[in-house]
């Protein structure tokens, strides 16, 4: 099916001062040449350890963090170089749900005003029609519309995240970035929110970028998964393929760390040696070579290409060329 979102060679660098006495400026290469697409109605899971750049990818697609270079296409239109008026219009189709509803919802605003805000910014007048719309949005996410006159602190964590989702839905978006939407919630509440997100996707035809470090949650919600390491995507595939046959040594290590519910299945945990290197001076060649147990001579010299191995499975590893 059609691509709703396409990212090409996205780079997001943050300049920082070199040392304490240094006047040189260095770049934190948070996202360093990332390309992927998301088809209409699909969920792409974006996984990786904290600091790998996944949240920055999500924010820069929405232009909340300005990209350094690359292309961000929404239905074929590049958001990076389009003018402000066009950007504002296109951005209505793209929303975000943040990780922590406690810090993303203004505690001094009534819930009805939080949900109504995007509508008012886009020209809707206060009045009955707006109230009806807010009530309908609250109902859609499973909240009691008669609670619209309360403040966020009067709700539980899960309910607050529902308020965040209602707000994100206000302008009828086509695409939503879900940035760790359940990781601040209790496990029992997590699945309710995930079910709700799934139901909304089905009913409203939404397309998701689902950012998470939790592979079990990602497996549940995603059609395809992309794995990030140190500012790059190292592997992406259909969810079942990725979990059944991970090809990149980093993906293999990540998956081996998932606890298996059935103790008779013996999977060996792959322990990664060393720390994640700094994104200021990422390792030459394959960025993962400092920690890879399969590394070869070529690995610290030549950067592996992100190769299409068929069936929407892409891998950036020199081992693939040897197969
Ligand atoms: Fe390991 Fe080399 Fe593959 Fe990188 S390219 S993941 S170092 S085998």
TrEMBL record:
The cross-references to InterPro entries, in alphabetical order and at most eight, read: AAA+_ATPase, ABC_transp_ATP-bind, ABC_transporter-like_ATP-bd, ABC_transporter-like_CS, Oligopep_ABC_C, P-loop_NTPase
Task: List UniProt keywords, sorted A-Z.
Answer: ATP-binding, Nucleotide-binding, Transport
Could you tell me which residue ranges the ABC transporter domain spans? 5-255
A Gene Ontology annotation in the biological process aspect, one of them, is:
transmembrane transport
**What is the top-level taxon of the source organism?**
Archaea
Q: Which SMART domains does this chain map to?
A: AAA
What the entry lists under Pfam families is as follows:
ABC_tran (PF00005), oligo_HPY (PF08352)
Gene Ontology MF terms: ATP binding; ATP hydrolysis activity
**Family recorded in the similarity comment:** Belongs to the ABC transporter superfamily.
Q: Which PANTHER family match?
A: D,D-DIPEPTIDE TRANSPORT ATP-BINDING PROTEIN DDPF-RELATED, TRANSPORT ATP-BINDING PROTEIN
Q: What is this protein called?
A: ABC-type peptide transport system,ATPase component 2
Q: Which organism is it from?
A: Methanocella arvoryzae (strain DSM 22066 / NBRC 105507 / MRE50)
């Amino acid at each position: 099916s059609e691509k709703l979102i396409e990212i090409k060679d996205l780079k997001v660098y943050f300049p920082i001062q070199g040392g304490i006495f240094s006047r040189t400026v260095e770049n934190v290469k948070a996202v360093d040449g990332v390309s992927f697409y998301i088809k209409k109605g699909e969920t792409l899971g974006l996984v990786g350890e904290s600091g790998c750049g996944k949240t920055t990818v999500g924010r820069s697609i929405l232009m909340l963090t300005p990209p350094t270079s690359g292309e961000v296409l929404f239905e074929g239109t590049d958001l990076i170089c389009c003018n402000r008026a066009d950007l504002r219009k296109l951005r209505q189709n793209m929303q975000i749900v943040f990780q922590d509803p406690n810090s993303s919802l203004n505690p001094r605003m009534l819930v009805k005003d939080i949900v109504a805000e995007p509508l008012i910014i886009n020209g809707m007048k206060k009045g009955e029609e707006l109230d009806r719309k807010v009530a309908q949005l609250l109902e859609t996410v499973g909240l009691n519309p008669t609670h619209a006159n309360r403040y966020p602190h009067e709700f539980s964590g899960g309910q607050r995240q529902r308020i965040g989702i209602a707000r994100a839905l206000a302008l009828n978006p086509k695409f939503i970035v879900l940035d760790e939407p359940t990781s601040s919630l209790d496990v029992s509440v997590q699945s309710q929110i995930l079910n709700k997100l799934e139901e909304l996707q089905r009913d409203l035809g939404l397309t998701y970028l689902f950012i998470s470090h939790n592979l079990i949650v990602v497996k549940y919600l995603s059609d395809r998964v992309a794995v990030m390491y140190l500012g790059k995507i190292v592997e992406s595939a259909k969810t079942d393929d990725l979990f059944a046959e991970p090809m990149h040594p980093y993906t293999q290590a990540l998956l081996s760390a998932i606890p298996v519910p059935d103790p008779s299945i013996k999977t060996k945990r792959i322990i990664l040696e060393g720390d994640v290197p700094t994104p200021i001076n990422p390792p030459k060649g394959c960025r993962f070579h400092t920690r890879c147990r399969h590394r070869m001579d070529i690995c610290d010299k030549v950067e592996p290409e992100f190769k299409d191995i068929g069936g929407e499975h892409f891998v950036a590893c020199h081992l693939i060329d040897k197969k």
